[in-house]
Backbone:
């Protein structure tokens, strides 16, 4: 006699009910967990609250705050001479290790000393790995508990959308790293963070808390690909984002060509005629690689002396007269802060751009 087979899959009654609640009352289900107070409010049951405030919170936030303040013990940074190239002149450092531990070690000697930081964290796409910061766990224990490590041996855990702490896990990972990164920045320092749609809103909220909403500088949009996947579920996405925050608000302009392919004109019609001296190495030329540009009237400005161009850059100081928006002191200050100048054609419509560098990534 044939008996009906017992199904191998066991129904997740509770999970199914939570999904039904989420369909009816989205605000009552947060990160896969039912907020009973929010559910009561959806049903018209409210209770008076003495103190309400606008804030970002998640399960595990206090632990993330504590993690940012904890010191790193029994760890040190070792100089490896064999892997270094011209360290006496470059003064560059390349460091491998768990990024949170390394950041904390750097904080001991480089507190408030870093001009610019760039990070490229996991985007939390639903199948990403996030860092597990339980440093007390032995390597064998961690391998067993988490099942995998990154290329540098750092313990990781898969953060799936089915997790009840999908967004919370990601925020708990990001908060201490952002907090320590802020400690490393100079007073006029800036941080750039890559991200996509999955956590753009949460990243901005947690950065507002760590750096201050008033220190938000910009959200850059950059084209990731010109051929987005045709099998995309909702729409074919071809852009990602870079958030910029300053440690303290400054009048710095962020229009560097490396970030948004933009530039700004230095000549504006209506400004009084000024004569500016451009130092050697400050101007890039698109229309000439090597040669001499003779002095004389150009369409947009007057060149007061010849320019020697080597590898597309001026190899001597030269003077240019035109309707410039800056004076000589502003020009000098801008060059010191990373501004360069670009002449695209022989019309001499000179524009400005910004140099950017990177500090650390994934």
Residues:
């Amino acid at each position: 006699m044939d008996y009906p087979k017992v199904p191998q899959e066991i129904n997740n009654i509770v999970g199914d009910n939570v999904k039904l609640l989420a369909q009816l009352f989205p605000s009552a289900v947060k990160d896969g967990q039912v907020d009973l107070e929010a559910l009561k409010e959806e049903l018209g049951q409210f209770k008076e609250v003495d103190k309400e405030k606008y804030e970002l919170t998640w399960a595990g936030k206090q632990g993330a705050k504590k993690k940012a303040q904890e010191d790193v013990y029994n760890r040190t940074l070792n100089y490896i001479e064999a892997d270094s190239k011209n360290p006496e002149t470059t003064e560059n450092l390349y460091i491998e290790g768990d990024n949170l531990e390394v950041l904390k070690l750097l904080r001991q000697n480089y507190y408030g000393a870093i001009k610019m930081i760039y990070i490229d964290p996991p985007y939390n796409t639903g199948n990403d790995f996030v860092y597990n910061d339980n440093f007390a766990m032995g390597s064998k224990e961690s391998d067993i508990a988490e099942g995998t490590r990154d290329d540098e041996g750092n313990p990781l855990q898969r953060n799936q959308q089915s997790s009840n702490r999908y967004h919370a896990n990601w925020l708990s990972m990001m908060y201490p790293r952002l907090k320590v990164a802020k400690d490393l920045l100079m007073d006029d320092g800036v941080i750039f963070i890559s991200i996509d749609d999955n956590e753009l809103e949460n990243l901005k909220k947690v950065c507002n808390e760590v750096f201050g909403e008033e220190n938000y500088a910009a959200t850059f949009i950059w084209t990731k690909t010109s051929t987005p996947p045709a099998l995309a579920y909702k729409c074919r996405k071809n852009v990602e984002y870079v958030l910029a925050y300053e440690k303290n608000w400054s009048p710095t302009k962020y229009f560097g060509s490396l970030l948004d392919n933009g530039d700004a004109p230095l000549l504006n019609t209506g400004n009084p005629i000024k004569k500016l001296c451009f130092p050697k190495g400050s101007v890039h030329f698109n229309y000439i690689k090597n040669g001499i540009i003779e002095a004389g009237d150009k369409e947009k400005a007057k060149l007061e002396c010849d320019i020697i161009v080597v590898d597309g850059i001026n190899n001597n100081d030269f003077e240019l007269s035109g309707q410039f928006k800056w004076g000589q002191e502003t020009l000098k200050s801008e060059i010191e802060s990373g501004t360069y100048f670009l002449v695209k054609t022989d019309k001499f419509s000179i524009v400005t751009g910004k140099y950017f560098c990177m500090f650390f990534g994934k």
